[in-house]
């Protein structure tokens, strides 16, 4: 149980880091790029709140009651289509581009962490909860990786490569 509680704390820290990166990118960006990052920040806030609820319920000796699979299905996430204009705007702002790079790593780490937590959990409900989070974070990872890869071409076109 101590291991699970520590893993939950680590996961909450990771979610807060993600909220911070996405929120900052949303503030720096404009239009649909800002909307994309703002929506990711909101999703990560939901993840944090779910984890916090789980943590508090477990701390109180209760079995957590949230049905994450139902929550995820209710959200009906659809992967956005990233236009050339979207990718160029991501590439043209070094802060936003760096946020994408950082977020790729955070999402991959979260995916692996939640899968490990699912593997460690003995209770089927906990296994399902963490597996669902892992799958959700994998969708984020795949989207951000696509943005990173597809915007790379535009990044080289947009940069002036001048000395600092």
Automatic annotation (TrEMBL):
Rubrerythrin diiron-binding domain span: 7-146
GO terms for MF: metal ion binding; oxidoreductase activity
InterPro entries in UniProt: Ferritin-like, Ferritin-like_SF, Rr_diiron-bd_dom
Name of the featured protein: Rubrerythrin diiron-binding domain-containing protein
Organism: uncultured spirochete
């Amino acid at each position: 149980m101590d291991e699970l509680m520590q893993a939950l704390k680590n996961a909450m820290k990771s979610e807060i880091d993600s909220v911070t990166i996405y929120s900052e990118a949303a503030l720096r960006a404009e239009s649909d790029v800002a909307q994309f990052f703002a929506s990711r920040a909101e999703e990560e806030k939901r993840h944090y709140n779910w984890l916090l609820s789980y943590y508090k319920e477990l701390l109180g000796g209760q079995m957590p009651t949230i049905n994450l699979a139902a929550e995820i299905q209710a959200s009906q996430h659809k992967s956005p289509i990233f236009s050339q204009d979207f990718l160029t705007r991501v590439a043209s702002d070094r802060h936003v581009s760096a946020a994408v790079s950082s977020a790729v790593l955070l999402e991959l780490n979260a995916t692996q962490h939640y899968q490990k937590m699912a593997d460690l959990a003995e209770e089927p409900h906990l296994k399902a909860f963490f597996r669902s989070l892992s799958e959700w974070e994998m969708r984020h990872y795949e989207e951000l990786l696509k943005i990173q890869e597809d915007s790379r071409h535009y990044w080289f076109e947009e940069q002036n490569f001048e000395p600092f």
